[in-house]
Amino acid sequence: MNNNDPILNELANLxxxxxxxxxxxxxFESLRKMLHDNxxxxxxxxxxxxxxxxxxxxxxxxxxxxxxxxxxxxIQLWDVLRRHEQQAPxxxxxxxxxxxxxxxxxxxxxxxxxxNKFSLITAVSCAAALLFLLLFVRVTELACGREVVTLNxxxxxxxxxxxxxxxxxxxxxxxxxxxxxxxxxxxxxFDKGARVVIEAPAEFQILADDRIxxxxxxxxxxxxQGAIGFxxxxxxxxxxxxxxxxxxDVDSRGDTCLHVIKGQTRLIAGEKSDTxxxxxxxxxxxxxxxxxxxxxxxxxxxxxxxxxxxxxxxTIWRGQKQLKLADYVGGGNGxxxxxxxxxxxxxxxxxxxxTTANRPAGNTYMRLPRHPFVDGVFVxxxxxxxxxxxxxxxxxxxxxxxxxxxxEVINTPALLDGQxxxxxxxxxxxxxxxxxxxxxxxxxxxxxxxxxxxxxxxxIVSFQSQVGISETALRDPNADFWVLVDGELRYRKEHVQQxxxxxxxxxxxxxxxxxxxxxxxxxxDPGARELPSGFIRQSIDCDWGVFADPVLILE
Amino acid sequence: xxxxKECFMDADNKYTYTKESSxxxxxxxxxxxxxxxxxxxxxxxxxxxxxxxxQDVMATMLTxxxxxxxGTNFIGWAISIAKYNIxxxxxxxxxxxxxxxxxxxxRFQDEAVKKxxxxxxxxxxxxxxxxxxxxxxxxxxxxxYEMDMTYRQIxxxxxxxxxxxxxxxxxxxxxxxxxxxxxxxxxxRE
Lengths: 555, 190
What we know:
The complex is a heterodimer of chains A (about 550) and B (about 190). With about 550 residues, chain A is an alpha+beta fold. Helix content of chain A is about 20%, strand content about 35%. In chain A, strands 1, 2, 3, 4, 5, 6, 7, 8, 9, 10 and 11 form an 11-stranded mixed β-sheet that branches. In chain A, strands 14, 15, 16, 21, 24, 26, 29 and 33 form an 8-stranded antiparallel β-sheet that branches. With about 190 residues, chain B is mostly helical. In chain B, a hairpin with a 5-residue loop joins strand 1 (about 10) and strand 2. Residues about 1-15 of chain B have low confidence and may be disordered. Chains A and B meet through helix 1, helix 2, helix 3, helix 4 and helix 6 of A and strand 2, helix 1, helix 2, helix 5 and helix 6 of B.
């Protein structure tokens, strides 16, 4: 055989290419010629094909995927039968009328068995349906375990061997799998409370109501108190949660890397007499090498894993510590996906590009139930009670204003009067340097609970922002700045008449705080007045309130 | 008279099949499916096309099961349908490549059938050889044959080029082929 090794190698390579239809015409002809001309090569060829067929029949090619595995031959057959049943007409055919005429004869003669094709298809389809039902019941009985997990959410998820049930809300049973996620990411919510985000490519299996097997890929587990003991098993390690958040990355070599983001875990690695069991705490990471089963320290990477997803807002949270408040106003998810120069109209509540005009308005609080992160907007006038949240919180200290407004609450305006918003010499007109622009008289309330829900396991600990009137305002301003949390005043600066950076805000927030309100009012200026130059100056003229790089800080 | 002895007319004079014939079909097909697929793969080199052909052939067999004579060579009957379907599909789709033209299909039919007969033995020998295969190679086979991944998908996971992947798989197949042959020789000597 050694003399034929180059031929065998070449044959194997050509066949491998042919399997995916990526043989060139010349290569294909070369393959055909080899097989046509030489019986020994043909024999090798048949043997290689036999080998592939046998490999396809083999199970347990990888140890961790040894459990529940349908006979692949059955799957194709059932698919044929199922399709046959679906395509066949669902009626039965009366017997041939010509035979009824023959009944009138005293003696029947045997007629040739010409079978009506339609009746044949019908008969076969009934048989196929029955057969399919028998087989389906058998498989279902074998495969059904207890339902313990819900596919809670997914972003761009693509599965191999796609089943129609693998959509949001699908229930997974014990011994579901192995499931192969080819693309995107999914969030699994175990009935006991553990939440696992799996990022493709990944292969996994539900092992129990508190356990998942990860053959390869990335998984991030957030485990509440009631679900302590939740575990992720890999081929060479077991990680047991002790009240924590952790991520596991199994690469194509089979090495397992554990990163503990919060709390404690127990890591068990190795086999039998060489088993290692150790506690791995917050901020530390370990690697279990598949080849040697050794456990080594590695740097803990906090942004390696997708910790939470929200398909409605396309949020993919990898543990970023800041959420950009202005981004929400631009229709984004807090991670810079929103549109610039885009905002929310304070009277209609509609989102759109910036529009400018001095306009009067009532002070009705415009609730935004369909906005994922903003509770509402308003034009404060101080004359009537000023509601500032959908829960009825009131801005008690609201000053009297002229009740007019100039433009929407804007995420990072492009230009206003040809000017870029600037504080401390820094222009805030890009995604890297965003700002929330509040031209008096205007207010906006953010729903912190809605924001928290997209970053489970994280606490919003503060709101931070630089604040002031843009240095590029064309004339002298006079504006008031207000920040409230659940209607309680937390920051107040009135009659600001200097342009530029006013303050570095840091407002502490707790898990029970729900609504964050930002307001800019007109400083109490009188209504329209004519200047010596003839210019009609409104009360809100050049009250360019800038919250520069406003962020919510997470822990 | 309707050919199928097990069919009967119900009170409404309608024909129906019993489930017996369906069970019989399945009991004959399942053991033969491996051989049938091997035969198709000998001739249709593209994996996806071969699987489509298999589905097509099984559907035809189901439809024509009434033509099968009980007690005769089931796999022989299946192959005749497979050959017919392969050529018919090729006529409808000129882009489908076949290893052998119709003449060579006939010419090499006997040796192909003989090779199919050794499938079961080779399967058993393969299981022994797989035990000796290093784990890292088994992973490739798992991706390719259990997970049905393409070379490109495997390349993405393993951070390799597609060329490396198919060459590695070809090399693994060659290793297994040699192992099976050596084991066969060893068994023959005994």
